[in-house]
Design brief:
45% of the residues lie in helices and 11% in strands. By secondary structure, it is mainly alpha-helical. The site of glutamic acid (GLU) has 8 residues, from strand 10.
Length: 505
């Protein structure tokens, strides 16, 4: 058994992300890109973007744009490319012809009909359905005669006729063995001269000087044949590292077909994800550190990343379409909320601004004289948020008079207590008297007001919260009051009787 061993990481690392542009950039593709990018960054290598667009019927310009936009948004930058596989078709064709000349491949004139008949016969006799080498045995004269007649032919790779096989040391899956006798003489070029994907991919990797092929586990089936091509072309094999599949909770492979938009990078962008949080989440689908750490900065991740950390077990994307509770894996949300809480507030402000502009609630004073207020309010409310969308939605009451009131909170915290209809406007009167609106003065006023009442303090405090923010929970109430400001708080407290009326209508 011949064997490639490339355990040692060498100098001059060159890796690539080679998507076929047949749809949006999905999270599986993004994960492949991220692993390659991290590996290149870690080893001061080169990361190449190569668009494998030779399937002209399925490749689209929109998809190419989607892939490039998605990578840009994620912050996954490439050092070379994008190269387009379709530009190199002549090179692929020439490689096939070179393999014929060097005796590693041959022209096969068998027609589809002939092959079908043989296949049926083999199936009936329960024999191997591999190609039977008819054309491999043709004499040079017969080949020349067939060519002179203009008969069409495909080019088949000549798998070694000997005992033994190929052993590829996959950096993740370990030794992958394949006996020569189990590999059919596979087609590398069609009868119209167009190369097959297996050949194009290998030829491009050779030209691009790829040292490590890090790709999805579905590439594993191609690997032994690609190794044969590398060797026949006199090239050095790259190290292969195949990544485990990602499955959903029903054990279905994550795919565009089954999960639709939900698994596109764009979906996360549209749902208020921070791009780094998504990178951090995706990298954990199939890779881990020995201490199972979950949160990384860019530098920490580059430093920690290694092929050894890629596991063989399929990773689980903890989500089933239709789950009413979450729109994605809860871990993705928890990682996103971690970064929302901890990134510099200026960075969050920049991203929130985009969301506010989209929602029509952006006010230029947030960049001007109310900058400090804007930043401190974002800082106050961000601790409970999961996505950027929470700022204009759950946090809307801080920035707009037109804010949603959670019906459950309204019922539980306000409508259940009819006496609040009078109490809240009375509290508003009390608050009118506050001159300097601060954490202390609002607290004093509320405590003072509560003292004379029979109602429990908690009920009043909760009612204030729901009346002024529309929410059930949130930051400390006096921080909330200070941030929302005197005028708006008073207005909202005075509006409480209307909330009772609205419900009666
Ligand atoms: N174009 C292939 C795909 O999108 C890439 C396979 C490879 O990385 O070798 O699956």
């Amino acid at each position: 058994m011949q064997s490639q061993n490339h355990d040692k990481i060498e100098e001059g690392i060159r890796v690539r992300f080679a998507p076929s542009p047949t749809g949006y950039l999905h999270i599986g593709g993004a994960r492949t890109a991220i692993y390659n990018w991290l590996f290149a960054k870690k080893h001061n290598g080169v990361f190449i973007l190569r668009i494998e667009d030779t399937d002209v019927e399925r490749s689209t310009a929109d998809s190419i744009k989607g892939i490039i936009d998605g990578l840009n948004w994620l912050g996954i930058d490439w050092d070379e490319g994008p190269y387009f596989q379709s530009k190199y078709i002549e090179e692929h064709k020439n490689a096939a012809l070179r393999l014929v000349e060097s005796g590693h491949a041959y022209k096969c004139f068998c027609t589809k009909e002939e092959l079908d008949v043989k296949r049926q016969a083999s199936l009936a006799a329960k024999r191997s359905v591999q190609y039977d080498w008819t054309c491999r045995r043709l004499s040079p004269e017969t080949i020349a005669a067939k060519e002179a007649q203009g008969l069409p032919y495909v080019i088949r790779f000549k798998v070694p006729d000997q005992q033994g096989g190929i052993c590829v040391h996959d950096a993740v899956y370990g030794p992958i063995e394949k006996q020569y006798e189990d590999i059919e003489d596979f087609v590398i070029s069609r009868s119209d001269g167009s190369p097959l994907y297996l050949l194009s991919n290998a030829v491009d990797d050779i030209r691009d000087g790829i040292t490590h092929v890090i790709r999805g586990q579905d590439g594993l089936a191609n690997t032994p044949r690609q190794v044969l091509i590398y060797e026949a072309l006199g090239a050095r094999c790259p190290v292969f590292a195949h990544m485990p599949l990602t499955l959903d909770l029903k054990k279905r492979k994550i795919s565009k077909r089954t999960h639709g938009e939900l698994v596109s990078v764009q979906f996360y962008r549209d749902h208020g994800f921070l791009s780094w949080a998504l990178v951090n989440f995706l990298v954990l689908l199939g890779w881990h550190t020995s201490d199972d750490r979950e949160i990384f900065s860019r530098e920490e991740l580059i430093d920690a990343f290694s092929l050894e950390g890629i596991g063989r077990a399929n990773s689980i994307f903890n989500y089933t379409p239709g789950d009413p509770k979450f729109f994605t894996d809860p871990k993705a949300l928890s990682i996103n909320s971690h970064f929302l809480r901890t990134l510099p507030i200026e960075k969050i402000a920049e991203l929130v601004k985009d969301e506010f502009v989209k929602e029509g609630i952006w006010n230029p004073v947030y960049d001007g004289d109310k900058r400090r207020w804007f930043l401190s309010t974002l800082n106050l409310i961000r601790s409970r948020f999961h996505t950027l969308k929470d700022f204009p939605y759950l946090g809307r009451a801080y920035f707009s008079e037109d804010f949603p009131v959670d019906p459950k909170a309204l019922k539980k915290r306000v409508l259940n207590y009819p006496n609040l209809k009078e109490l809240m406007p009375q509290l508003a009167d009390r608050m009118e008297q506050i001159e300097d609106w601060t954490l202390q003065t609002t607290e004093e006023a509320v405590r003072d007001f509560i003292q004379g009442l029979e109602e429990k303090p908690g009920i009043i405090i909760n009612a204030i919260r729901t009346s002024v923010t529309g929410q059930l929970a949130g930051p400390g109430i006096f921080d909330v009051l200070t941030a929302i400001g005197k005028e708006r708080v008073i207005k909202r407290l005075r509006r409480v009787p209307e909330l009772f009326e609205e419900i009666q209508e």
